[in-house]
Design goal:
This protein has a domain at 12-59: Arc Repressor Mutant, subunit A (Orthogonal Bundle), CATH 1.10.10. Helices cover 32% and strands 28% of the residues. The chain is built from three helices and five strands. It has helices at 18-25, 29-37, 54-59, and strands at 2-5, 8-11, 15-17, 43-46, 49-53. The strands form two sheets. It has a three-stranded antiparallel β-sheet with strand order 3-5-4. The protein has a two-stranded antiparallel ribbon with strand order 1-2. A hairpin with a 2-residue loop joins strand 4 (43-46) and strand 5 (49-53). Helix 1 (18-25) crosses helix 2 (29-37).
Length: 71
Amino acid sequence: MSTHFRGKPAQTDEWVSQAEAARMRGVSRQAIARLIKKGRFRILEIGGKVLLRREDIRAYRPEAPGRPANE
């Protein structure tokens, strides 16, 4: 199975489900869903199934909690 993402062929091994992304990060699937909703990950939706790029999951660094410090 392959599809196109922005005009380039996408290999299925570079995409993971929300559940697999959660296992990779050690968080719940709901936590991944919240990050998707906030726009922190690019997604590919095929037939109602949401997939995330494995590379993006590995590279993700959470933002510091709380309000930003005043400068």
